[in-house]
Amino acid sequence: MKYSEIQGFCNSLVRQEILPVLSENYAQLCQNAAEKGAAFFNDPSSNAAFKSDGKGIVSEGEVLAERIIREKFKAQFDDFQVWGEELGDEDEHKDYTLVIDPVDGTSSMVLSAISGEATLSFAITLGFMKGDEFIGGLIYELQPAGDALRLSAIYSAWQGEGAYKDDKPFTTRKSKSTIYCTAPNVMFTGGHERAGFFELQKNFDAISEGQNCIGFMQAIEEENSCAIEADLSIHDIAALIPILKEAGLKATDLQGKELAFKGLEAEYKILTAHPELHKNCIQHLNKVYNQAGADTGQSPMFEELSGLNTRKFKTEN
Questions:
Q1: Out of 59, 152, 259, 298, which residue is the most buried by the measure of CB atoms under 10 Å away?
Q2: Can you tell me the distance from the alpha carbon of 213 to that of 240, in angstroms, rounded to the nearest whole number?
């Protein structure tokens, strides 16, 4: 299989067809947010709403974007089945699988439209699997440009071929030590995992929330930062794992075990960092996981944000 052919096709598809769809969708989000204000999510005419199970948010443009990707990709590469965040997972018993999340970070996209600020991150993610093995990942970072979206970076990796940002090998730098976690007060809600996060954050200068998959890309570029998340699906991690590994990072679950495909309905938890930092992080987590009566109280780091990026679950009015 020629990975370059797949990547070239996907790059063209995103630029020519998917970006215009999502950009138009974003303009509509901005218009709805301006018109509806606080009633945005309770108004059925809005173009974004909570999913039917109350978990997560989806916008109309994401559904259309995934439909286009599925149809165009399968027409070009018929040895793939498709698993998608919004339109479901095929079971065609094919050797290869394309795993789509048309927007990883819908809440951050919506909040950006509502606030007019571009401090949160979101992206299109395409993961590639052979059987149960993660073999490739493409992440297309999107940024607001007024009431439209632009493609700001492409992160890519294929098994054995290295990891790249805009076709150039990743570069690393030292910076303020940061934990990247999209919504810690939602992902770590109690028990030893919550206490473990408290212990971990004591060793970092800051926590950056609402960055989604781009937070993991930041962990590649920042030698003294890590990314940690829970409550993830296969659609969230399939593109991440090949990029992280090909970039030389250690990527495991929260106990330090190698990440592997566990099924379509499984919850995935991930900690990633450069190897020595990852080792230290696991030691801090294990320090808590291995002791009884760990502190699971409140932390300033878990204060509720004003934005929707931490509202992963629908709450009743």
A1: 59
A2: 7
Count of domains for the chain: 2
Residue 51 pLDDT? 65
Q: Which domain holds residue 77?
A: 3-169
Longest CA span, the chain: 55
Kindly state the helix (H) or strand (E) to which residue 316 belongs, with its residue range: none
Q: Which of 143, 169, 195 is the last residue of a domain?
A: 169
Among candidates 229, 221, 228, 271, which has minimal Cα distance to 250? Answer: 271
**Are residues 159 and 187 both part of a single domain?**
no
- Tell me which of 128, 145, 169 is where a domain ends: 169
pLDDT at 298 over 80: no
What pLDDT, in 10s, does the model give residues 39-53? 776 777 777 766 665
Neighbours of 95 (CB within 10 A): 11
Asked if residue 179 lies in contact with residue 203, where contact means CB atoms within 8 angstroms, the answer is no
DSSP state of 304: P
Complete DSSP assignment for 87-153 = TEE-----SEEEEEEEEETHHHHHHHHHH----S-EEEEEEEEETTEEEEEEEEEEEEETTEEEEEE
- The DSSP annotation for 224-274 comes to T-EEEEEEE-HHHHTTHHHHHHHTT-EEE-TTSPBP----TT--EEEEEE-
